[in-house]
Amino acid sequence: MDLKSLKIKAQEKIQKTKELKDLDSLWREYIGKKGKISKIFNALKDLSEEERRKIGKQANEIKEQIRHLIEEKRKELLEKETSKQEMESGIDVTLPGKKIEGGHLHPLTQVLERIEEIFGKMGFSIVEGPDIENEWYNFDALNIPKDHPARDLWDTLWLKIPKLLLRTHTSPVQIHYMEKNNPPFRIVVPGRVFRYEATDFSHEIQFYQLEGLMVDKDISLANLKAILIQFFKNFFGREVKIRFRPGYFPFTEPSIEADIRLNRKWMEVLGAGMVHPNVFKAARLNPHNWQGFAFGMGVDRLAMLKYKINDIRLFYNGDLRFLEQF
Ligand code: FA5
């Protein structure tokens, strides 16, 4: 067979090929060591010098052309194979990609961070305490003796382990802190608290409080009021109506409560007062040497007032339509 028809034949065969493995056999048939073109090279030795040069050159060119055709065909078949696999696996590579949505902090976390920032600027350190407490820290040390009706102020979730409970307020951290630190100091304590009570628009069974405690030589109720008014001004960034009224807590004397007005209604936001001498004693501090104020504010309620949210339960039911607004 002359070189020209060998080339045409090879071209036809390559064109018709549908499988990669058939392409490999064509490679062996033409380009391989024992292939047709190698045979032509082997036969060159029997030719005259002039013919050897001419045919040798032609054979080299044809070998290159066939090699090129096979490579092109190989690429084509490989592409087909990949898209066939994609079709079978159900992947449509032409579809636009899905955007990954970036999340954000929960509104209560955002509010807590803002509250901590404001108190931080007023010189308060941030301290944390455990969610699980014993009776001593949650009640006794806070001047709430066993069988005293004041215990009923806090409906408690008890654990199966005797005498352990989920803290009903952040006030136990006052005791933990005063056991280990000597005054003067000012701290705030953010944290989750738990109560066994019926829920409504302003009551949850778990919510956040921020405890405050400032102890020094001559701290007064006037200092407490000034700090709270300054805090509310910074937190709301607008004028809000605040009402202080007398209250009762076993661990402060005197005690007050504060309400904030929104939509022509007052909402209670905190309890506070001057630290009771028995609380200092329980934490092994001498009440004759020290005095101070403490407060416990409802963080959820502050968030409700700031963002005009009318139901506390929205914070906890995970509805994205609500959460994505912050
Ligand atoms: C206390 O928990 C006291 N430990 C506060 C305190 C600290 C007084 C230090 C004196 C000194 P009270 O139970 O009132 O107090 O709760 C404090 C605040 O938490 C309330 O004013 C209210 O804003 C919020 N709060 C109370 N119960 C709930 C509830 N079920 N859901 C949401 N917020 C609540």
Provide an overview of this structure:
This protein is an alpha+beta fold. The chain has two domains: 3-89; 107-323, Bira Bifunctional Protein, Domain 2 (BirA Bifunctional Protein, domain 2, 2-Layer Sandwich), CATH 3.30.930.10. It is built from eleven helices and nine strands. The protein has helices spanning 3-16, 20-30, 36-43, 49-89, 107-121, 135-138, 172-180, 221-236, 277-282, 299-307, 320-323, and strands spanning 125-126, 132-134, 164-166, 185-194, 206-216, 242-247, 252-262, 265-275, 291-298. The strands form two sheets. Strands 1-4-5-9-8-7-6 form a seven-stranded mixed beta sheet. A hairpin with a 2-residue loop joins strand 7 (252-262) and strand 8 (265-275). Helix 1 (3-16) packs parallel to helix 4 (49-89), helix 2 (20-30) runs antiparallel to helix 4 and helix 5 (107-121) packs across helix 10 (299-307). The longest helix has 41 residues, at 49-89. The chain is rod-shaped. The relative contact order is 0.10. The mean pLDDT is 92. Bound molecules: adenosine-5'-[phenylalaninyl-phosphate]. The site of adenosine-5'-[phenylalaninyl-phosphate] has 24 residues, from strand 5, strand 8, strand 9 and helix 10.
